[in-house]
Fold:
Amino acid sequence: MLIKERKPQETAREYALRVLRDNIISLEMKPGSQVNENELTALLGISRTPVREALIELNRIKIVEIYPQRGSYISLMDYESIEEARFIRLALEKEIMELVCRNVTQEQTKRLEENIKLQQFYIDNENWEKLLETDNEFHRILFVIANKMQAYMLMNSMMIYFDRMRSLRLKVVKNQYVVDDHKRILDAIQKKETRRAMKLMEEHLTRHEVDWNEMKKEHPEYFK
Structure:
């Protein structure tokens, strides 16, 4: 389990929630595995109450299952939850392409280019956790350009299902197309080709459908 440093002004509950969320997405906490509350409390250096509150919050969005007298378990992956998260993300990200193509500045284009270079570096070094982080940052920058950060925050709160699947796909498939997709999307943005940018975004956010069977074959124990 990866334990990150607590941020300034972060409450114990927020810290526990962030650590749990990050470890679930990265698959350090595997689907179907039990959460050891005493161990987690000791590792984080906080009391048991905020850990329990964080688990209840994750149970509310059905990524953790809590069984009385039996404990808490990380939920298995299911296609329906992943697809619902993808549906929300695709609806938003396709729509902001028009705003991005219209409003992007040269400085913002440079930020996207630098981000893509980092993605390539992490692919070359097979650092899948950092690749996922820079991938997410690429998409966050698009929302910044579109000036739709509230929409991004709302979307991000539901992305744990989709991001966990993306993390597994990176480890199983290890495909270059993550970076190649972003390069093509950036090219369309630079050329102000809104329709092409929207089409490329749709292709980018539906690629997991091709890899679904391979992921299930590699780790059948992760899925319902």
